[in-house]
Amino acid sequence: MPDTILIIGATGGLGGAATAVFHRHGWRVRALHRDPVAAQRKRPDLEHVDWRAGDAMTAADVRRSAAGAAVVLHAANPPGYRNWRKLALPMLAHAADAAEAEGARLILPGNVYNFGPDAWPVLAEDAPQHPATRKGRIRVEMEADLEARSARGLRVLIVRAGDFFGADAPASWFQTVMVKPGKPLRSVTYPGLPEVGHAWAYLPDLAETMVRLAEREDALPRFARFHFGGHYLERGIGLAETIRETAGRPEAPIRRFPWPLVTLLSPVVPLFREIGEMRYLWQEAIRLDNRSLLSFLGSEPHTPLADAVRTSLAGLGCLEAR
User: Fold this and answer.
1) What is the pTM of this model?
2) Neighbours of 299 (CB within 10 A)
């Protein structure tokens, strides 16, 4: 019988990509959602998913949905950066409890939030974690809890990556800021300093990496961490240039993100306050060192940037009919 994976957050960007990739590799895919009927309407492309009703904030729901699973992928995040401490920590704890009870491997998608200036510009898996932000400190706490649990028997896999992009990455900078979904491309907004490098993770490649790691369970240590290199652009603005070239609009303007307005309104707009805290990620060149991943897998799944951008724009409805 094929192995079963429970995906928490299957209607999100990474969760959706993972459902497709794990299914393609022959896994049975199960997903937790508060309203499975609504989830099926939202994502008819995920017809192969075994939807289970439940809430990630309810321990019993997660535990019941994880029954018989070999892997639990925790791909859920509080929307809009809101209430991370009140939501992110309990959700992860419930997923970890369920995975431990089933003897399953817990997979957590990580990011670069938990690193500070003493670890930049190239991040190794064991780099010091001294974040300068509140969300970074919560990320450190999340990973530390999983490492402590692994000492007691939980098998953990953390895969850290850069900013997500893909045909459906609803909380990504690519989809919410750089382009306007559902409209042919007329301009691109870039949030960073043009000549400062930036790391991006194309979601199908990241999901493919996770399934390849999961399928080498016998070789994984109990507590495993890998960095996914993805697409690192030495000139960060190169992604914006690739977007307009791929869309056939090389003359389209590249606009600046209104950081001064975000700063001005941060005291009264909670989302702007949370976004403003992460501005440093667009001002510093931070690259993930993926040598450990390459050594373990032999290669990293990597779609050429132009192809990844073209697929993403097509999925978002940003390409004009030809």
Assistant:
1) 0.96
2) 9
